[in-house]
Amino acid sequence: MNAESEPHSPNRRRFLKTSSAAMVGGALASSLQFPSVTLGAPNSRKLKVGLVGCGGRGTGAAAQAMKADSNVELWALGDAFEDQLTKSEKNLAKQFEKEPDKLSVGNRKFVGWDAIDRVIDAGPDVVLIATPPHFRPQHLRKVVEAGRHCFAEKPVAVDAPGVRSVLETAELAKKKGVSIVSGLCWRYETGMQEVMKRIHDGAIGDIVSLESTRYTRGVGKLAERQPGWTDMVYQMRNWYYYTWLSGDFIAEQFVHELDKMAWLMKGEYPTSCIASGGRIARTERKYGHVYDHFNAHFDYANGVKYYASTRHEPNTDGIWRDHAHGTNGWCDLMKYTLYDKNGKPTERVAKKRTDMHQLEHNEMYASLRRGEMINNGEYMAKSTMMAIMARMSAYTGKALTWEQAINSKEDLSPPSYDWDQPLPEPPVAKPGVTQFI
Amino acid sequence: MNATLRAAFPLNPLKPNPASEARRPRNAMNQDKTNHDSKSTRRSFLKTSGVAVGGATLASTLAFPGVNFGAPDSRKLKIGWVGLGGRGTGAIDQAMKADSNLELYAMADVFEDKVEAAEAKVKTMHPNAYNVGARKFTGLDGFNKVLDSGVDVVLLTTSPGFRPQHIAAAVEAGVHVFAEKPMATDAPGARSVRESIKKAREKGTALVDGFVWRWTYAQRDTYERILGGEIGDIRTIYSAYNGNARKRYPTWGKHNTKTDLEYQIRRWYYFTWLSGDHCVEQAVHSIDKMNWAMNDTPPEYAIASGGRQVRTGEEFGNIFDHFAIEYHWANGVDGYHYSRQQDNTEGGVNDRIYGTKGVYTGESGRKHHTLIGDDLKWRWKGASNNGYQTEHDEMYASIRAGNPINTGDRMINTTMTAIMGRMAAYTGKKITWDMAWNSQEKLVPDNIKWDMDLPVRPVRMPGKTEFI
Questions:
Q1: Looking at A27-36, A213-222, A403-412, which range is the least confident one?
Q2: Where do the domains of chain B lie, and which CATH numbers do they carry?
Q3: In what helix (H) or strand (E) does residue A209 lie, and over which residues does it extend?
Q4: From the CA of A170, how many Å to the nearest CA of chain B?
Q5: N or C: at which end does chain B have fewer Cβ atoms within 10 angstroms?
Q6: How far is CA A284 from CA A224, A295, A396, B440, in A?
Q7: Cβ <8 Å between B344 and A432
Q8: Are the beta carbons of A274 and A393 closer than 8 angstroms?
Q9: CA-CA distance, B228 to A51, in Å (whole number)?
Q10: pTM score of the predicted model
Q11: From the list A314, A341, A430, which residue is nearest B309 (CB)?
Q12: What does the pLDDT look like over A119-173, one tens digit per residue?
């Protein structure tokens, strides 16, 4: 394994190819249920894709996967609800009207709590998981244990036990030689990659402080409770508004901004956090119990501070910006613009945003064809943890260290996955009253 | 100021009238502080006044510190006091210690029990300076009676909602004013104060604020260095004012107050029209430091979030319990200000200023101030003072010197900066400096009467609450 200690050696590419081939040919071939896609010439074999979680994002991811490689087909669909699945299937059928061979779902359509198992059993090469974030740790584990490649939407957990599980699964994926590609799509955005390269090359000097603000009007979708809906059905239909399902919006959406800064900090995560937040505009019961604004202050071991605020409040003014200040200038990330010490713009690295939701799938399939496994597991877990840490700090009013947060024992899972199980509305967190667990 | 009030409060005949009276001669050191509002002299003013209160230096080198030395104006000054609460009691004590020739001459509060309590306290603290006699006034027009009684100086320490009209009346009456922060709770009030500041300047009467950090040596020394460029050009300013929710007015409630107005004034902190909300009433100290770092250039706009998550009971009126305000200055500087008042949560009052050459870190309460940069490692060490005392020391010294301090511009700018942040949080809108100043929302009712119908405005909701 000498090649690994020289990651930039010209032989790296060849090493990766060889080792994947070796793994598949040797120990793994016998233990895995499916032969690796990585053998042979590019595009030599049709890749089967399964989608679990047929909402808007999942349907989008499936379409992007179909466009990412010329030789893929949608093989199986799974969702907790039949209507969601049907809607997604129709939507995809329309999108791929002219390429009907891309859709080979047949009767491999699975509805219910065990949809994940049945999709995996149907034998796809790649599984896209885009269910509510609560399910990500368990679904990811199942996919990786089954030796399937995985595209996992963000965030990847809603609580610390979930994050710890994902970190384990990420290690397992390395051993098994399967890919985990994260839906933290900025990592695949061309302009942002260039910006990060400049910053990592020292364009603004050493990092001093970071700022992110993402104020939006929220995600809007609400399902009115229908006759016959149990608590579980209602909460699953309105998953965004339940922390056990979505992680709250700081994890569900703002994780993108936190992850950008984790990327900028070369994978270094904050040592502590103090956050506030609340629920002032989305106060009606129909909005479950999540907050509508958060404000967090992160501290890093090397003295860097990160000020981060986000809100989801209907009919309010928006703002979306990420700033990084260094000893030698600063960067407006969302404008791809670097400034010197005197505040003069020195370079606009990119003009417009690339289609990062597409690019992440392009990269995934290209790497599979090359026999290089992508593993985004660590950063997707830790950036999710960063959001959960801030949420826990805001909910409890306590300053939290990274160690405290990642070792939190708070498991937000319901007692069981049973449609008829009573599931009382969780209380809205109150700082100073809500306990850190 | 309307004509009625003007008639009611003619210039106090006991007061020197700066408009007609020739300025007293000043020594060289004093010469350059003829205009406190000019940016170029602000620095030297701070230096001078810092020295002035130093003690020994004062007597030997300066001509103005007259009070204790007989010249140039050694006459006994009559103090009026309006708003007899805790901060007011502190202020009156500090005033008495600032100058040896003062007497408390008249006082007023809307409540009689406050007057009795204040009388007892002042008599204990400063028995020889208590000369109120029958000039103890209660009721909503008590401040008028104090001004009418012929005082030279008035301390305005009521709840902030009343400040604009009190400042207006006092300035109109030609009285020197010490006004606690903040100066107003709404834009109409702030506009009134802005007019009063101009008038005070024309009349040459003192208008001194209670933004205590401006009067604290550690802070002055530090901010002078920052403004002098020691950490380079400022890029980002951050301040936090996170604390617990002090239980205020445990004894006052619906059960022992007779009217809407009495209930609200007894529990004034919890009503936006009276206190301005906690970002205007308390955290404004930190906002003031942000403006100070920007050389008192106010921000271009604010965008903010906030809410009321814990202090939600009806007894807590309609204020928020946390804010996150982002300020943006025209030169590209961003400011982040966080505040909260929630029990049993992590606190912390601190400031950070990021410059192109270094970083300032400060905790005012602990007198901890550092500047760290490439070739810079500075920590404030020096003779500390109590800013609450110094604000009065310097005020009376300036009056005695015939050159009364007017800090109005900065104090109203800071008040308005805080109000702009609150408006942004309440409405969810981006609020510009001009929008804030031109806001037509009048929170303080006209013609206040004890028995008026005064329903509590619902808690504001961003996205629904309109900017007016």
A1: A27-36
A2: 3-19+28-214+390-408 (3.40.50.720), 229-385+415-437 (3.30.360.10)
A3: strand A207-216
A4: 34
A5: C
A6: 13, 21, 21, 30
A7: yes
A8: yes
A9: 61
A10: 0.85
A11: A430
A12: 999 999 999 999 999 999 999 999 999 999 999 999 999 999 999 999 999 999 9
In this prediction, residue A220 carries a pLDDT of 66
Judged by CB atoms closer than 8 Å, whether chains meet at A211 and B303 is answered as no
User: How far is it, in rounded angstroms, from Cα B423 to Cα B420?
Assistant: 5
Structure tokens, A381: 């877990």
Domains and CATH numbers, chain A: 2-186+370-376 (3.40.50.720), 190-352+381-406 (3.30.360.10)
Pairing of β B301-307 and β B431-432:
antiparallel
Q: Which residues of B touch A215 (CB under 8 A)?
A: 303, 305
User: Which residue from B236, B324, B429 is facing A295, i.e. has the nearest CB?
Assistant: B324
What's the pLDDT score for residue A343?
A: 86
Q: pLDDT per residue over B224-268, tens digit each?
A: 999 999 999 999 999 999 999 878 888 999 999 999 999 999 999
Distance CA A312, CA A310 (A): 7
pLDDT at B311: 94
Cβ-based neighbours of B410, under 8 Å, separated by 6 or more: B209, B211, B214, B288, B291, B292, B296
Give the pLDDT score at A43. Answer: 55
Asked if the peptide bond before residue A422 counts as cis, ω within 30 degrees of 0, the response is no
Q: Which amino acid is at A282?
A: R
User: What tokens does A332 get?
Assistant: 């407006």
Q: Which two tokens stand for residue A16?
A: 């990766």
Q: Does B307 touch chain A (CB under 8 A)?
A: yes
CB pair distance less than 8 Å for B428 and A432: no
Is the model's pLDDT at A17 over the cut of 90? no
Q: Which residues contact B140 (CB under 8 A, 6 or more apart)?
A: B110, B448, B449, B450
Residue A211's closest CA among A319, A324, A310? Answer: A324
| Residue A209 one-letter amino acid | S
Using an 8 Å CB-CB cutoff, list chain A residues near B336: 211, 307, 309
For residue A175, the tally of other CB atoms under 10 A from its CB is 10
Q: Angle CA(B206)–CA(B211)–CA(B217) in degrees, nearest 5?
A: 95
Q: What is the pLDDT of residue A45?
A: 83
Alpha carbon of residue A392 to chain centroid: 19
Q: ipTM surpassing 0.90, yes or no?
A: no
Contacts of A297 in chain B (CB under 8 A): 240, 338
Q: What are phi and psi of B74, to 5 degrees?
A: -105, 0
Sheet harboring B207-209: ordered strands across? B136-138, B102-109, B77-82, B153-156, B176-179, B207-209
Between the CA of residue A241 and those of A160, A224, B238, B376, B428, what are the distances in Å?
19, 13, 31, 49, 21
Q: Please enumerate in sequence order all residues whose Cβ is within 8 A of that of B316, keeping only pairs 6 or more positions apart, or say none.
A: B270, B308
CA distance B67 to B448: 39
pLDDT confidence tier of residue B73, bands split at 50, 70 and 90: low
User: pLDDT tens, A234-284?
Assistant: 999 999 999 999 999 999 999 999 999 999 999 999 999 999 999 999 999
Please name the residues between 173 and 192 in chain B that touch chain A, using a CB distance below 8 Å.
none
Q: Is B300 helix (H, G, I), strand (E, B) or coil?
A: coil
Least CA distance to B467: which residue of chain A? A316
